[in-house]
Amino acid sequence: MSYTKTLTFRSNNLGTDATLMLIFNKALAGSYDKFPVVWKVTKFGVSGQYQSTVTFSSQSLNTGFQPVLRGYITSDYQEGQIVKGQISVPYIFEQDLSTLDDNTTWNLSYDTATGKVSINQA
């Protein structure tokens, strides 16, 4: 089944600088020899409004690929970079794109007590 999903990530006076890296890196059984590629990298600033919109289009190919997108707060990677090792920070976002509405909005927020950024659906 083919589909297109558009995800909008936004922040408003986040309170910290944050770089969001999006990658399809959920391991599939028997895929240990495949390395994921960083899909998108977006910077969000301390103050002001920031927004990034990404669009994913699937094709009806039976490749075994699962469109599970993960988000990490890290500035260690660039778009298109091959990731050959473990990412040094935990993911803060994980969504199977095939289960989402065609258009979704996600808010980034920063907890000053924990020092952590989170992403929640608007």
Describe the fold and architecture.
With 122 residues, this protein is an all-beta fold. The chain has a single domain, classed as Immunoglobulin-like, CATH 2.60.40. It is 0% helix and 46% strand. It has no helices and eight strands. The protein has strands spanning 4-12, 18-23, 38-44, 49-57, 68-73, 93-96, 103-111, 116-121. The chain has a four-stranded mixed beta sheet, with no helix packed on it. Strands 3-2-5-6 form a four-stranded antiparallel beta sheet, with no helix packed on it. A hairpin with a 4-residue loop joins strand 7 and strand 8. Mean pLDDT is 90; it is low at 28-32.
Write the layout of secondary structure elements.
Layout: E1 4-12, E2 18-23, E3 38-44, E4 49-57, E5 68-73, E6 93-96, E7 103-111, E8 116-121
Principal-axes geometry comes out as globular
CATH 2nd-level architecture = Sandwich
Number of helices: 0
Class by SSE composition: mainly beta
- Tell me the quaternary state: single chain
Strand order of the largest sheet: 4-1-7-8
Q: How confident overall, as mean pLDDT?
A: 90
Number of domains: 1
Return Rg in Å. Answer: 15 Å
- The name of the CATH topology is Immunoglobulin-like
User: Hey, roughly how much beta strand do the residues contain?
Assistant: over 45%
Low-confidence stretches: 28-32
SSE order, one letter for each helix or strand: EEEEEEEE
| CATH class label | Mainly Beta
Classify the helix fraction into a percent range.
Answer: under 10%
Main sheet: strands, sense, barrel: 4 strands, mixed
